Amino acid sequence: MKKFIEEKSPICVIYCASPGSFADIKQLQPILKLCKDKQIFCALVCTNMWSGPARDVVINEFKKELKFFGEQIDKPFDQGYHRAPHQVTIFGHGALCTMINSIEYYDPELSLTMRKPVQGVDELIHCIMDELDEEKLIGWCNAVLYRRSFWEKLVQKTNGFFSRHFPQVQGFFDPNNDQNAVELIKKLFNNKNQSKK
After folding, report:
1. Closest Cα partner for 98 from 1, 15, 13?
2. What is the C-alpha to C-alpha distance for residues 78 and 82, in angstroms, rounded to an integer?
């Protein structure tokens, strides 16, 4: 993995573990240090978060391993429907940890009626996006371009703001056009760079 990181210099490295997995995460330290030195963003992700209470153990282990990246900041994300907020923990400007469930969780052996929703994927995408520089941000947006739920949430939250403050970009908010997000980001960064001159 070190060789891959040194040769390819990825936008970010995402390491996933689920509750009950037997990975020794201390073995990640050399990879994490390499990523920090090369300014490659790291995300440690607890997957299958609804499968049991061991998710808290996984997250606490992740937090211990990421402390050397810098100050720990917890970012809560409202989930609506009277559910507890989803939390992403950021470390400095180089790493984060969170938990996700990418598909609805249902275990008929435990309960025929209990179902847990998809959660955390869009928040993970958002937090990585927040921490990347302009060049990597465009690459990241291209990587997540087809994550429709993320872009729909983004459009809902920003459409009113942009229509009031940047009427020239309102046409970019068409969720049926895949190129809109990348073009909008380029346009915003070009405007931002021109205003600095």
Report:
1. 15
2. 9
